[in-house]
Amino acid sequence: MEVTQSNFEQLLPEIEKAINGCSFLSVDCELTGLKVALNNINAFDSPEQYYKKITRDCKEFLVIQYGITLFRYEKGENRFRHQSFNFYVFRRNLHKYVPDQRFLCQTSSIDFLIANGFDFNKLFKDGISYLNDTEENASKKLLTEQHEKRLAFINTNVDENNDNIPIPESAQVFLDDVVRKLEDFLDGKDTELYLPKCNAFLRKLVYQVNREKFRDKISLETKEVEKERVLCATRIKTTEERGKDEKRNFSDSLNELNRYLGFSKVIRLIVKSGKLVIGHNFLLDFLHTIEKFLTPLPEDYNDFKECAGSMFSRILDTKFMSSSAPFKSQISTTILGSLLGILTEAPFGLPKTEVESGKVGYSTDNPKEHEAGYDSFITGLCFLAMWQHLGFVRNWSDEDIFGELGFALLKPYLNKIFLMFLTDNQYLHVAGHDLNPSREHVFYLTFPKEWKTDNIAQLFSPFGSVQVAWLSETSAYVGLFKKEHAPFVLQTLSKGDVFTITTFARRQSQLAGIKIPCLSPLKTRKSSEPPGACRKRCKTDNSGGVIPKRSFEPIEEEMDESVSETENETIQSSSSEDANESDEPAVKKRKTFAECDSWD
Predict the structure, then answer these.
(1) Is pLDDT at 209 greater than 90 in this prediction?
(2) CATH code for residues 2-131+263-429
(3) Whole-prediction pTM value?
(4) Helix ranges, 116-168 (H)
(5) 3-class DSSP state for residue 490?
């Protein structure tokens, strides 16, 4: 069901009922951009480094569509009922107590959404507002402070803000006209008078003149008429009456702010329910959900994990699940649409699903890919297929799989979010410790900017195939596939004329400002030579190409199954890097990631 500002309040009770009654729910977001943070990811980043790079973009781009599908298991009928909501989300300006939001758009993302039928007119005209808790509390604080100042003025008749502004000559005619109108108003019987429209500066001058000439006779209030702000004059009431009016206005402002929370109420209901939340390639959607609708993302990684874990006790990323055992060996691609196709065929299959009676949902017979509601629906279907498969291989019945007992099958995948482009199948563990894989087989290499991947591969050829993760034109991390050769790399390559090499651990210490006296922590065997390696100094020609003293053919070998499917991709940039700066690439040589093929 499509949800906009016009029907949100009406549908909110139904949404709350569906959340509280579901077995689990799946979500998906459409964003105004992915930016370059994904391009800055290095294959050997830690989850903490990954988080710090990605969070920069979450503060600049917007969630503009949020899809939620709620699945409810009917035990007696052995089927899942589902209903979906597709929310258009956009925060418009409310008043001066709520900051006017600024955001970025990425052209490729906007073009992609337009190509898939996204209705931007509906978004900007009828999108649902939202605030996170920090923004809500700040707005309440400002409203309360202004309310208390106005009450103090009413009770004491002393205005704290009594600094007069010199009246420009150009404004004098307008103000004289206002004074005449106010005098006529006092002589007449009208209960209120709307003054001529004017800008904010003139309104301030009108308040000043009224305070000087009609302090005990006329009260002014700014109101919105036909989407424009105008001044309304009324006769001064008693102190008690004015106090009641102010309290009523303050209550109305708080109610308006509560309505402005909008879509944030839905996310708070999900958090309160404690239900299992499913996403696909969930990291960006998860971070944006917290940042936009709950609370600003902490800068500290451990604080983030504590914060996220306290709000979402059970989340599951279907991309991580499908990239892990036992599915990894049976699934050739984890792009969402393709994954659904694989999971509908043997040895997998979808359990029986139907739309909730009298409700609105999606069907795979009428695909609407990259509409957030539909993508949340097929994310839930992918999860159901894999969940069911875990039970079938154990000869469990559907009732056992999808009952309370079946949730134990999901334990290896809970609270682990897939991290694209990292080696060693790393993930972000929201509720536990992240993996800490050895990096003793990884080296930090600097070289002439003329060098290409082939030059690096030739340099390391005595040690077999390598993975090159570019940092800049002149630096990269190089990982050995044959990790047992790592102890011999430095003693063989430490005397290059045009390149420098050090261990990954030493480079990370340099970036952290930690001094390590030892050249390398790697152990070497004095009694044996590195397999196929030359102990003598490596030479280079004038162009920077490597000329080994002895020639070795590279050792061809298959990639280890534990390496992620994107491990062989190289991340290149075109700007040089200072040795003391962060290992982040600058301008990339590969395309910006589009959601349709890279962020699924």
Answers:
(1) yes
(2) 3.30.420.10
(3) 0.80
(4) 120-126, 133-156
(5) helix
